[in-house]
C-alpha cells in the first residue's frame, strides 16, 4: 500500500500543483517511472474538479459559456498549465524547426511563438465550447469531464509506449519505456471511467477517438523528432481531452 501511495504521490506531484509532502515519496527513478499507472487517476480527479466548478456555476445561474471558462480556470490552476505548456512548445517546435536538432532546441525555449499561441487558443476554445455544449445535469457533466480527463492522460501513456525518448535527458527520458504492468493498469484506469460513467456508445466513441488521436500524434512526433519528450506527452494529454469532449458533444 505504501508503494501504491508513493506512485500516486509521484503522479500527483508531476501533473498538478497540489502538495504531496503528506504522502509517501519515491526515492528512485524506477519508482517515479512506475508511477505512470496513476496518471489517469490524477486526471480523473482534475476532470471531476473542473466539472464540479462548472456545475456550481450553472447552479448559481451563470450561462454555460461563462461556467465553462471558470471550469477551465479551475483546472489550469490545479495543473499550473503543465500540459498546455507542452502543447505550446510542441506546436512551436513542429511548426518552426527546420530539422530535428532545431525542433528539440525550440522545445527547450521558454518563449512562446505564433504556432504555440494558435495551438493554445484552439485547444482552450475547443474545450470551453465543448464544455458549454454538454448536458447541464450535474451527474452527466461530472461524468463527461472526469472521463475525458482520464482519457487524455491515457493518451500520455500511449505515447510513452509507442515512442522512444527523443533525447537522453529530461522528464520523458527518465520515464523511459513503461513496464508492462504499470502500462496496462494505467490504460485500464484511463478507459474504465468512460466505460462505467458514460452511455456505452458514447464511451466507445470517446475511447476510439482518443486512441486514434494518440496514434496520429505518435506518428507525427516520430517523423518530426524521432520520439517523444515531456512536451509531446503534455500535448497528447490536451489533444486526447479535446477529442474526447468533442466526441461526447457529438454523441449527446
From TrEMBL:
Family note: Belongs to the CobS family.
InterPro entries: CobS (IPR003805)
Cofactor(s) listed in the protein's UniProt record: Mg(2+)
Residue intervals passing through the bilayer: 36-62, 112-134, 140-163, 183-212, 232-251
Protein name listed in UniProt: Adenosylcobinamide-GDP ribazoletransferase
Highest taxon in the source lineage: Bacteria
Native source species: Teichococcus wenyumeiae
Annotated function: Joins adenosylcobinamide-GDP and alpha-ribazole to generate adenosylcobalamin (Ado-cobalamin). Also synthesizes adenosylcobalamin 5'-phosphate from adenosylcobinamide-GDP and alpha-ribazole 5'-phosphate.
Reactions listed under catalytic activity: alpha-ribazole + adenosylcob(III)inamide-GDP = adenosylcob(III)alamin + GMP + H(+); alpha-ribazole 5'-phosphate + adenosylcob(III)inamide-GDP = adenosylcob(III)alamin 5'-phosphate + GMP + H(+)
UniProt KW keywords: Cell membrane, Cobalamin biosynthesis, Magnesium, Membrane, Transferase, Transmembrane, Transmembrane helix
Chain segments annotated as coiled-coil in the UniProt record: none
